[in-house]
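Why Carboxymuconolactone decarboxylase family protein? Reviewers of the renewal asked for a concrete example.
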Amino acid sequence: MARISPADKSEWAPEFAEFVGAFRSSVLGDTPADTHPAGANLLGTLARYPALAKAFLTFNGHLLYGSGLSDRSRELIVLRVAAVRECDYEWAQHAILADIAGMSEEQISKISDLGDYSGWTTAERALLAATDELLSDGCVAPETWKTLAVEFDENTLMDIVFTVGTYDMLAMALRSFGVEPEPDLEPYLPQRG
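Here is what the prediction returned.
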């Protein structure tokens, strides 16, 4: 149940609505908007605090479309954060982006196998390990860093750490505010046994 109810789009300040439209265009690029749910509940919740929302989304925009990470690598990290933090909303939104980035359903599902690094490339194993280490210890372990440093340049290494941290913070916000998945996200929610 929502602790902060999302503002209806008709309640959004015009400049915030314009900002969100530009943000979505930047993130989706050539991807048709109807292939990715709009995230009305998240954006509506953020619309309650436009100054914070614009600052966060501007920073987050770098991670989504300006980082050195490939879309696939970024989504591998974000989905791992969502799995560790059990953030269904984050998982569903990024399962869609992972699909757009070319991951199979099996690969997407496998990301939630915590501690299992089999079946991934060397770089992907290191990304998963770095995510797990950052979430548990707040630091990438030396051996993992060494592997990442072979695979990625310094700017991308920074992007990795900031991506984990940002999506960890977002998972905290989504869960704490009680942001509920929209009906169009239902098929993408994680299946827990």
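The chain has a mean pLDDT of 92. This is the kind of structural detail the renewal will allow us to pursue systematically.
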